[in-house]
């Protein structure tokens, strides 16, 4: 027994473990249940006297501990089991990257287009008072055009409401700044409308305006032309006479698309009365303004049939815009 034990001790010491395969061979050789040399020594213990059993039992247990120690040392030195098991050839887990909402894509495109021709981008509040949203824009209290823009009132007298259009930004900006300026603003507007495939109680509008000396309708046409060709390429554009209380003359702009004219925006020369309301001398300065709905523009660009799809968070719809910027 002693000789055997000495031999095994020597073998344990001399065994070089370099790889995980070596480690496994080492483990099997000494302590595996079926083949392990030390395991078989334990079996032999059964055959000897109780006195010797005690002595050898202790020694064999120590041998087993040595084996276990060697295994532990190797494992702690190469401890990163995970690193050894890591296979760099396995394809990684792909992380889904979100995308911009189609309305944000269009909004960013419009901002880009106007930044190139020197417009400044500004924000305006969604909660407005009557004066900024209506009165200063030449829409006095009993004016019939208010009917088309009923909205949600937060309080009455003084009237505080959710803005019905971004034209209110014109008033806010013009009151604070001296011309000349070129300004663009995009944001949410609200109206008391029944939800349908074509309308919603909330939508997004772009407002642009330019005031300087000698700004004419010609500048307005050029700017609209530039905007439309930047978005749609070469298309036919039509200016149709129209009416807005805050512009004179006013026009609706249509583009020729899918064998028909589609209205996309309103515009006009800022009414001198509006300039007076914000203390800008209408003899020296003139300007143009325009407004267009982002949802409507996106309907045309993406050939979408129902405006509600923008807002119901359907991932199958939103995913289609993932790669657009
Ligand atoms: N504010 C108008 C609307 O909501 C849109 C509009 C039309 C804005 C003509 C303008 C403009 O600045 O000149 O219906």
Q: Assign the structural class, choosing from mainly alpha, mainly beta, alpha/beta, alpha+beta, or little secondary structure.
A: alpha+beta
The CATH topology assignment of the largest domain is BirA Bifunctional Protein, domain 2
CATH classification, class level of the largest domain: Alpha Beta
Instruction: Give the beta-strand count.
Output: 10
Largest sheet: 7 strands, mixed
Number of domains: 2
Tell me roughly what share of residues is in helical segments: 25-40%
Which descriptor suits the 3D outline? rod-shaped
SSE pattern:
HHHHHHEEHEEHEEHEEEHEHH
The end-to-end span amounts to 80 Å
Rg over CA atoms: 40 Å
The CATH superfamily name of the largest domain is: Bira Bifunctional Protein, Domain 2
The parts where pLDDT drops under 50 for at least 5 residues are none
Order of neighbouring strands in the sheet with most strands: 1-5-6-10-9-8-7
